[in-house]
Amino acid sequence: MLRIAHHPAYIHPLREGHRFPMLKYELIPAQLIHEGVVTATSFFMPKLAQRTDVLLAHDEAYVQALLDLTLDAKMVRRIGFPLSKELVDRELYLVDGTIQASIFAQQYGVAFNTAGGTHHAGRDFGEGFCLLNDQAVAAAYLFRRKLAERILIIDLDVHQGNGTAHIFAGHGNIFTFSMHGEKNFPFIKERSHVDVPLPDGMEDEAYLGLLESTVEQALLRYEPDFVFYQAGVDILATDKLGKLKLSEEGCRLRDKFVFKACRERGIPVQVSMGGGYSVHIKDIVNAHVNTYKTAIEVFGF
């Protein structure tokens, strides 16, 4: 059974310019049900993540300032959203959704969060509309509770997972892999365990060839028993911010490769949605829905 975290009504930032990309989090589950990909019974409702769990990946002073709404103005600007209790609660739901989905993945092979992929949040900072790093917290949760011994975070968003790399720099059991636009945000990169920088304008064939060789190498080198997959669709040619030129089919084949590589090795996968900023919302939603369809195909639901 496919298990998918679906969240309480999303809090849209006050700045109208951010309303459009946030809309996808409402449309993805609706489209999945409309197309008959899943039923309502596939979804579960997360809770607010526990402070003690968040602290497995984030600095205590930073987390407390978030919870108390006392972040300094410079950090609020770095995050890009006006700070509010509703926004912080939204992030706590995201984190718990990914924690729960990672546990479901161990039972079913793969599980999803309809949002998440907040990979720009580092140990003691938020950035790029990310306050807390859902997959980093979930990875630390599994590791601390001995539910996984060696974890690989595969981040295929067009933007580097700098926050994730910051959190796990030097970690001997949680490894970070980021394949991203070399000249894209963030402009000052962190060092992942594996970084694969891409030139602007890369198309399907070159991208998929590089993906297959580098992910295979990472799986062989780190031998994970759990994978977190950040499946951003901002690699599409239609994306306003991505600078790559992948087709919708290329994006689907990307997902298929990751899922097959993990399924063949018996590695459970938790999937968070990551970025997507195409001009037309249908392009974003369709690409994300394809990720679910591809997981169902590969894992045989």
UniProtKB/TrEMBL annotation:
Q: What keywords were assigned to this record?
A: Hydrolase
Answer whether the UniProt record assigns the keyword Hydrolase to this protein: yes
Say if the entry is tagged with keyword Hydrolase: yes
* Residues that span the membrane, as ranges: none
| Residue ranges occupied by any Histone deacetylase domain in the UniProt entry | 22-290
Q: Which family does it belong to?
A: Belongs to the histone deacetylase family.
Supply the name of the protein. Histone deacetylase
Which species does this protein come from? Answer: Sphingobacterium bambusae
